[in-house]
Amino acid sequence: MSSVLRPAAADQDPPAARKYRAVSSHLAIAPPVSVVIPAMNEAENLPYVFKTLPDWIHEVVLVDGNSTDDTVEVARALWSGVKVVGQRGKGKGDALRSGFDACTGDIIVMVDADGSADGNEIVSYVSALVSGADFAKGSRFANGGGTDDMTFIRKLGNRVLCAAVNRKFGARYTDLCYGYNAFWRHCLDKIDLDCTGFEIETLMNIRVVKAGLRVQEIPSQEYLRIHGTSNLRAVRDGFRVLRVILGERSNRRALRRRPRHSPLLDTGRGTVS
């Protein structure tokens, strides 16, 4: 697994340092990072999304859900070399799967296109991965996280569904239905994503635990959507999430037979040193 490296000093061999991407004046990383942004009619929000993306990422993959506005044109104007992928079907899950297939980076980060996520947090997700985690899971309810965009009903539903996943699959999640996550690309071979809607985040969270992957929660701040309205429907999509939970078979007995380490690392912001 790739690791964090401090930049080489000026008197060291420059070619050896050029294989690392500078994150700050004190830090460089080796693995290329791909950011996947599913978007449909988000032209007004993309300037806010792209403004916070760090310039050291390897590529941005925009998955266009057959937008009728200038989403694609705006993305190309904002980020030179953005990779635009036309969505094959419908739904957020389908869009993300299309984006994952197009990624060439070792690390994949999922970011929503509505302006609710802060791209500056990507360094925390990446640092957790290069420090040993397989899956860095954003949490609005971990210590240091928060949300400006959750109704009481959605918050209650998320809490109930999260408790159900923790009980059934032996996880220790503090948040379940949140789309800001990052993972090593090789994880896709172990979780077999096969859903098309908003429930894809729940499916990922369940299957990484079932696969015994190492997960670290990253405290994250969710902001209000800047323009437009969300396609999320709390009741409809809540039932879809519930069906995913009930449909997945628990393998807690198998997990208990493994060496005694939790599939979920201690909750906390991954730091880089």
Based on helices, strands and strand pairing, what is the structural class? Answer: alpha/beta
N-to-C series of helices and strands: EHEEEHEHEHEHEEHEHHEEHH
Which whole number gives the mean pLDDT? 84
Overall geometric form: globular
Main beta sheet strand tally, sense and closure: 7 strands, mixed
Question: In whole angstroms, how far apart are the ends?
Answer: 17 Å
Residue share in helices?
25-40%
Which parts are unreliable, with pLDDT below 50 for 5 consecutive residues or more? 1-17, 259-263, 266-273
Work out the number of β strands. Answer: 12
List keywords for this structure.
single chain; 273 residues; alpha/beta; seven-stranded mixed beta sheet; three-stranded antiparallel beta sheet; 10 helices; 12 strands; 18% strand; disordered N terminus
Task: Describe the protein's architecture and organization.
- The protein has ten helices and twelve strands.
- Mean pLDDT is 84; it is low at 1-17, 259-263 and 266-273.
- Helix content is 33%, strand content 18%.
- It is globular.
- The strands form three sheets. Strands 6-5-4-7-10-8-11 form a seven-stranded mixed sheet, with helices on both faces. Strands 1-3-2 form a three-stranded antiparallel sheet.
- It is of the alpha/beta class and 273 residues long.
- Helix 6 packs parallel to helix 9.
- The two termini are 17 Å apart.
